[in-house]
Amino acid sequence: MHDKSVAELARELESGKISSVELTRQFLGHLKQEDEQLNSFITITEDQALADAHAADEQRAAGKATPWTGVPFAHKDIFCTNGVATTCGSKMLANFVPPYDATVTENFRKAGAVCLGKTNMDEFAMGSSTESSHFGATTNPWGLGKGEKRVPGGSSGGSAAAVAARLVPAATATDTGGSIRQPSALCGVTGLKPTYGRVSRYGMIAFASSLDQGGTMARTAEDNALMLNVMAGFDPRDSTSLDRPVPDYTATLDEPLKGLRIGLPREYFAGDLNGAVEEEVRSAIREYEKLGATVKEVSLPHANLAIAAYYVIAPAEASANLSRFDGARYGYRCADPKDLLDMYTRTRAEGFGAEVKRRILVGTYALSAGYFDAYYLKAQKVRRLIQQDFIDAFREVDVLMSPTTPSPAFKQGEKSDDPVTMYLEDVFTVAINLAGIPAMSVPAGFVDGLPVGLQIIGDYFSEARLLNAAHQFQQVTDWHQREPQ
Ligand code: GLN
């Protein structure tokens, strides 16, 4: 059952060949055994999962099943789950049990899906390797066969590793600057970051609110569509949620790609891009030509400013968002505070890890009087130019394609002492968040036995088109079906 997709599992359940309780037991057994090597889960919710599976079987017997009823999956540990620890990978929230569900959590619950637990992540979603988690690093299942410990990418590395290792068929994730797409690429799974505002941020612990977006991870594009069907939609509890109808994202998967206009941003096939990765990506694009698409080069003239703008704006917003963690109301509090100030300062000094502190310091500095105009305001102006680059490109083409990352999964420890090298992992992904447009990463080949991701970028609200393009590619390739040893 572990190799089956969400769509296939739904059919098994529908046919009555297996019950959700049996399926959930199988998945939990496998998960507990395999995750010792991977550390892709922070919390496994065994009892709750079995109770939910039981309820799902009853729901199905009563003729009230949805495509998700009784299907196991996992949540990134950034989505609040009522009554279940939600840590965001931090010591600060290690003891936090939310008294409410995120909208995304609630939606999966209503659909009858069975959550097996919460996946590991970089602390507060800041990182590209899932090494900064308070609960230890996650290991990429690829590479283990050769005895190598490679990073799964981040910050949603736990979700990506778990899906790649077939511990769950699907997992939720979030993407502020690449945290769905980069780990999807490094673990050989399929992930989608939707348009900003498409998926509610309510109950999703905030990092950089103007960039954060919840999204999907699974092995197939079809399963990403099934996830988005549940996740997308207007939510009055999120002031930046957009009130637009939600299509059935599975309905257009089979449309032919004939005539699809693909643009290749010149700036995304340059710089430190690994030559072997480029070759795999170009050969994937040739596959699209065989499917009837046309390809031309385009330019995103401000691409080289994206990392600089992102690493001002994201920390600035983080510094404001993370001021709520002060020991007063919930989360970690230092022992025996002398007075209020002592409580604030020691709580934050002890509760946050090094990367989170670095972001808070950088962000506070960029927002401070005297530096606001030079850094924050300037970055916001650059952001507008980057957005315009995409608007102009989508006048000429339907989608853009590029590598998701400049190179395949790196070794654990290789970049963890060098923040700037780590930030450059995001060179092809952050501009998409600055513009607010959707993008996917789709498995597109291997270099030295490690997966390579093809990034497909679309105009606002073009999720259906992206999923269609990814699905058609997956009908003629099998990169997404490869299994790590
Ligand atoms: N790697 C980027 C960062 O560290 C993006 C993280 C994310 O998308 N959550 O900020």
TrEMBL record:
GO molecular function: ATP binding; glutaminyl-tRNA synthase (glutamine-hydrolyzing) activity; transferase activity
One Pfam family linked to the record: Amidase
Domain Amidase: 22-467
Active-site residues, as the UniProt record annotates them: K76, S155, S179
Key words of the record: ATP-binding, Ligase, Nucleotide-binding, Protein biosynthesis, Transferase
A GO biological-process term: translation
Catalysed reaction equations from the record: L-glutamyl-tRNA(Gln) + L-glutamine + ATP + H2O = L-glutaminyl-tRNA(Gln) + L-glutamate + ADP + phosphate + H(+)
Gene3D superfamilies, alphabetized: Amidase signature (AS) domain
Gene Ontology CC entries for this record: glutamyl-tRNA(Gln) amidotransferase complex
EC number: 6.3.5.7
Entry function: Allows the formation of correctly charged Gln-tRNA(Gln) through the transamidation of misacylated Glu-tRNA(Gln) in organisms which lack glutaminyl-tRNA synthetase. The reaction takes place in the presence of glutamine and ATP through an activated gamma-phospho-Glu-tRNA(Gln).
Family: Belongs to the amidase family. GatA subfamily.
Matching NCBIfam families: gatA
Quaternary structure (record): Heterotrimer of A, B and C subunits.
Protein name: Glutamyl-tRNA(Gln) amidotransferase subunit A
Organism for this UniProt entry: Marinobacter vulgaris
